[in-house]
């Protein structure tokens, strides 16, 4: 078993993250321009809230998170703020969590998410929103978030259909998967 380091997201990680995502999520899910937006939205004042887990050889997992007040123009669909218990500007956004198959069941996703939540709590965020993949194997995405205390707000059919990538579930056409809008209140 290799040693895993968890580090804040850096621009130098972009090419490796794109290759990682092409392999484990679907070709074209992220590109350089998209990751630049993610990187900019990852700053909560002076700290980064997105993290990369890396073994000696490769990226093992990523947690991409948007700080409160940074993502209102990045995520514009599938939002139900009238159902939230807090103001939009107080809410962070869990953009993506991906763990390579070869590193699953080692707690990396939890460690990355906890690292993001530590920074968010310390900086005063009130909650975290995300869109969970309902059709994930064994509904693992929703179940994982429920263990962290996320609660379902609403479901959005064919949420990713406008994203130009080859979904590993729906290929060769557009992604027809359902997103579950989920919210966690931070204590």
Describe how the helices and strands are arranged.
Elements: E1 5-8, H1 14-24, H2 32-41, E2 43-44, E3 47-48, E4 51-54, E5 59-66, E6 91-99, H3 108-123, E7 127-133, H4 140-147, E8 151-156, E9 179-185
Parallel strand pairs: 6-7
Antiparallel strand pairs: 1-4, 2-3, 4-5, 5-6, 7-9, 8-9
Give a description of the structure.
With 187 residues, the protein is α+β, with helices and mostly antiparallel strands. It has a single domain, classed as 3-Layer(aba) Sandwich (Aminopeptidase). The chain has 4 helices and 9 strands; from the N terminus they run βααβββββαβαββ. It is globular and about 40 Å long. The model has no long low-confidence stretch (mean pLDDT 89).
Number of strands: 9
The structure class reads alpha+beta
Number of discrete helical segments: 4
Proportion of residues in extended strands = 25-35%
CATH A-level architecture: 3-Layer(aba) Sandwich
On the 0 to 100 scale, the average pLDDT is: 89
CATH domain fold name: Aminopeptidase
Give me the CATH superfamily: Gcn5-related N-acetyltransferase (GNAT)
User: In one word, what is the shape?
Assistant: globular
Helical content class: 10-25%
What's the structural domain tally? 1
In what order do the strands lie side by side in the largest sheet?
Answer: 1-4-5-6-7-9-8
Q: Output the helix-strand order.
A: EHHEEEEEHEHEE
Low-confidence stretches: none
The gyration radius over C-alpha positions equals 15 Å
Largest sheet: 7 strands, mixed
Q: Could you tell me how far the N terminus lies from the C terminus, measured between alpha carbons in angstroms?
A: 35 Å
- So what's the CATH class? Alpha Beta
């Amino acid at each position: 078993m290799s040693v895993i380091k968890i580090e804040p997201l850096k621009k130098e990680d972009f090419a490796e993250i794109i290759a990682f995502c092409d392999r484990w999520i679907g070709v074209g899910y992220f590109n350089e321009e998209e990751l630049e937006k993610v990187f900019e939205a990852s700053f909560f004042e002076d700290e980064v809230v997105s993290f990369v887990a890396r073994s000696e050889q490769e990226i093992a997992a990523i947690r991409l998170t948007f700080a409160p007040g940074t993502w209102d123009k990045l995520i514009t669909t599938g939002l139900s703020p009238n159902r939230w218990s807090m103001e939009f500007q107080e809410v962070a956004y869990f953009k993506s969590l991906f763990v390579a198959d070869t590193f699953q069941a080692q707690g990396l996703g939890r460690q990355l998410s906890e690292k993001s939540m530590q920074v968010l709590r310390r900086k005063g965020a009130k909650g975290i929103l995300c869109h969970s993949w309902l059709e994930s194997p064994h509904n693992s995405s929703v179940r994982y978030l429920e263990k962290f205390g996320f609660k379902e707000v609403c479901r959005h059919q064919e949420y990713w259909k406008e994203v130009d990538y080859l979904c590993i579930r729906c290929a060769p056409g557009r992604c027809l998967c359902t997103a579950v809008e989920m919210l966690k209140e931070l204590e």
